[in-house]
Amino acid sequence: MKAKAIRINRTGGPEVMEYVDVEVGDPGPGEARVRQHAIGLNFIDVYFRTGLYPMPLPAGLGQEGAGVVEAVGEGVTHVKPGDRVAYAGRPNGAYSELRVMPADILLKLPDAIGFETAAAMMLQGLTVQYLFNRTYKIKSGETILFHAAAGGVGLIACQWARAVGVNLIGTVGSKEKAELAKAHGAAHVINYNTEDIVQRVMEITNGEKVPVVYDSVGKDTFTRSLDCLRPLGLMVSFGNSSGAVPPFSLSELASRGSLYITRPSLAHYAARREDLEAMAADLFDMVASGKVKIEVNQKFPLADAAKAHIALESRQTTGSTILLP
User: Within 13 Å and on the Cβ side, how many CA atoms surround 281?
Assistant: First the structure.
C-alpha cells in the first residue's frame, strides 16, 4: 500500500527532504506495521540529515512516533493489531504516515496519554529518565546544571528535577526562555548571552560548583561545563546542537579535579526490553500523574518537515515539536 513519507537521497540542508509516495508492505518476523497519528521532531534528525551521523542513502528520517498497530509479523506477542503504541529509537523512518518497523521498541500507550503528547515525549522523556536515574542518579537536595533548559528535553528535565526535590540550574539564550524554564521548575536560570555561566554557578553554589553537568549543546558550552564541575564531578555530554565537541586532552579532566566524562545514548540504555519497559513505565507515571507536563509548542504538517527543521536549528522552538501526517 502507498503512504506519504519524507525521504532524503543526499545529506545537506532542510531542502534535501522530499515528501514522496512510498510503498509499505506487510510486517515480517519481529516487525509491526504502524499507522502513525503523530511524529516527534528531535535534533538527532538534523544530525542524520546533515550527515554528521552517517547512514546509508536513500533513507527516511525520524526516531519517534505514536499511532495504532495495523498488523504484526511472526513472533510478535507484546503488541497486537488495534493497540495504541508509542516508540523512540532506531531505525530512522518515523517521518511517514505508515511504517513497518521493529516491534521490539513499541510500547503500549496508557489511555491517559494522547498520541500527540506521546510523540512529543518518548525520545526526550526516556532520555531524561536514564540521565537522571542511571547516568547519574540525582538526589533530593542536590544542585545540578542542565544546558538548553527551555528545549524539549530541558523542560521535561526542569519538571522532573522539581518533582524529586533537585535544584536545577538551567541555561537559556533569552529572557523569554528563562521565564519558561523557571515556570517549569528550574530553581535558577542563567542567560548565557548576558551572564557568565561559570561565575553564576559559583555564586549559586557558594563556590562549591555542581556534581554533574548535563550538556546537549556541545562545542559552545563544553569547556564552561567542565569549569562548573566540582572535583570528581561527572560531565554528561549527550548532544551537540552547536556543533561537535572539539578534540581535547584527557589532562583537562585531571587539572580540574579528576573529573569523569560520558557520552551516553538512549540506544544503549534501552537495549534490553526489560530496561526499556521499566524506563517507559517511569516516564508514563511521571506524565500521567501530572508531575511532568509535555509542552507541544509547535506543530507542522508532515509535508512541511523542512520548515520544522529550520525552526529547530535556528532556536526558534521551545518545548517539543511534532509533525502531523
Answer: 6
* 167-172 and 107-108 strand pairing: unpaired
Q: What angle do CA 58, 118, 130 make, to 5 degrees?
A: 85
Q: Please tell me the distance from the alpha carbon of residue 317 to that of residue 1, in angstroms, as a whole number.
A: 35
Amino acid code (one letter) for 179: E
Yes or no: say if 200 and 170 are a contact pair by the CB < 8 Å rule.
Answer: no
According to DSSP, the residues that pair with 300 across neighbouring strands are 323
Per-residue pLDDT tens over the stretch 56-112: 999 999 999 999 999 999 999 999 999 999 999 889 999 999 999 999 999 999 999
CATH superfamily of 140-263: NAD(P)-binding Rossmann-like Domain (3.40.50.720)
| CB burial of residue 274 (10 Å; 0-12, 13-18, 19+) | exposed
Helix, strand, coil in percent for the chain, rounding step 5:
35, 30, 40
Q: Are 113 and 288 in contact (CB under 8 A)?
A: yes
d(CA 102, CA 190): 41
Omega before residue 56 within 30° of 0, cis? no
Architecture of domain 2-122+267-324: Alpha-Beta Complex (3.90)
User: Domain spans of the chain?
Assistant: 2-122+267-324, 140-263
User: What Cα–Cα distance (Å) separates residue 245 from each residue in 135, 189, 191?
Assistant: 19, 23, 21
Q: Which residues contact 99 (CB under 8 A, 6 or more apart)?
A: 3, 5, 24, 33, 34, 36, 60, 65, 93
